[in-house]
């Protein structure tokens, strides 16, 4: 009766239980290294003095300071993805168009 739960290897008469199989362990050859700062020139950059200004003024100042960055004006209540983009700045504004959170790269 117990023979139905075992696999029979071809060419041999041994029965192997699925529970007794050896499991291989995955080993990492090299440790994960963080990216060098060369690829992320604006990493950690923020503009706290822009809180309270209008979105147009904030966008103008960010583009003047770092012309390679892309500014995105979004509402505070809007759903956003949590992906990090090294060339994007999100400017969070309220319904009056004023910056309410510190704009930062990402």
From TrEMBL:
GO molecular function annotations of the record: serine-type endopeptidase inhibitor activity
InterPro entries: Prot_inh_pot1, Prot_inh_pot1_sf
Biological processes, Gene Ontology terms: response to wounding
PROSITE patterns xrefs: POTATO_INHIBITOR
Keyword Signal listed: no
Keywords of this entry: Protease inhibitor, Serine protease inhibitor
One Pfam family in the UniProt entry: potato_inhibit
This protein's record includes keyword Nucleotidyltransferase: no
Highest taxon of source: Eukaryota
PANTHER family given in the database record: PROTEIN, PUTATIVE, EXPRESSED-RELATED, SUBTILISIN INHIBITOR 1
Family according to the record: Belongs to the protease inhibitor I13 (potato type I serine protease inhibitor) family.
Record's protein name: Uncharacterized protein
